[in-house]
Amino acid sequence: MIREYLQSHWNTLGGENFIALCTGVNLALLSWKQFQERLRHAEIRLEEKLASTGASIADAQRIVKLHRLSKWLHNQLRWCGKVLWPVIYLLAIVMTVFGFGMLYTKSSCPFDFLLLLPVLLLLAWSWFSLAVFAIWLGFVRKGILVFSTAADQKSAETAIRDFASSTEIRQIPKSSSRPAPKRKRNQN
Amino acid sequence: MNELEAYRANIEKLADLESKEVFGNGKAEHAMVIFETFFKRAKENIVIFCKDLSEKVFNSDNLISLAEDALRRKARVTILTQSDPKSDKFVAACSRWKEEKLPITMRVSKPGSSASSTTANFAVMDRKAYRFEPNREEKTAFACMNNESACATLLGVFSRLELEQPA
């Protein structure tokens, strides 16, 4: 019964077309251009951070180089986490079931082992990405933290606003004693 | 590359990247570097509100040369000090530039005005980059090469401080 069920579904899905489609979608989604853009953006942010915290250009370049590969993979992992991984894992589960189903039922389908290949590749890719992500967290992030000593943007803007409001308050009596300072200044 | 050169390179990089990152600028030599950068890159205007144009910062020949280049590019420079300027070289250059009708204005704030009593100093370049020193006694200045809203706030303060001054 299981054999008939699996074979009927396998035939419905169209075997090799299904594998080709999955692989094609995977490669398209993991397109190089997409990651290049994300990588460049990440690098700029890192360079900014390093420069703002006083790291030398040589330090910054060294860390950016080390950061490049891991950040690229980290980005794809993060993106995949949102969009692709649910799809990949769903496909992997479905294909594993079908693959083992084919093996179990000794089906005459010629794609028994090929069927497992994309699954294995996807799983290998995901584990590799996870490993690099761990490296990114442990190593590059540590590098960033070492140099992170500058003021943050929010506290800087708050300090400026506080200063602006304090000068405004102090000036009220002065400006009230001078009714039209702007016009007077322009005349001069 | 010494520390100051690295610092200068980093500031140039942040300016090139139009970065919004805030960085420390407390030391006098660091202040000199950022003023040099402002003069080097200014296209429209620079406003400076400071205590007395410190010699350590403004007596630099390179800074004076870059300021002159900025003025010749028609970038307007407006300086308001809280007390008489100390940088003889820069003041002498200012007098020369004024005679040449270059767009520079330098004034000393009126005693008793808000400008003379505030402990904060700042500078803004092209309504985009700023240096802000919340308390000059503490030497804890910071700067940013791209923050238009903060610059607008500081320019608003500068306008108010200027209005208090006699013509």
Can you tell me about this structure?
With 188 residues, chain A is mainly alpha-helical. Chain A has two domains: 2-150, no CATH class; 152-188. Helix content of chain A is 88%, strand content 0%. The termini of chain A are far apart. Chain B is an alpha/beta fold. Chain B has a single domain (3-16, 23-163), classed as Endonuclease, Chain A. Chain B has seven helices and seven strands, in the order H-E-H-E-H-H-E-H-E-H-E-E-E-H. Chain B has helices at 3-16, 28-41, 55-58, 61-72, 88-99, 114-117, 148-163; strands at 22-24, 45-50, 76-81, 104-108, 121-125, 129-133, 142-144. In chain B, strands 1-7-6-5-2-3-4 form a seven-stranded mixed sheet, with helices on both faces. In chain B, strand 3, helix 5 and strand 4 (104-108) form a beta-alpha-beta unit. In chain B, helix 1 packs parallel to helix 2 (28-41), helix 2 runs parallel beside helix 4 and helix 4 packs parallel to helix 5. Chain B starts with a helix and ends with a helix. Chains A and B meet through helix 3, helix 4, helix 6 and helix 7 of A and helix 1, strand 1 and helix 7 of B.
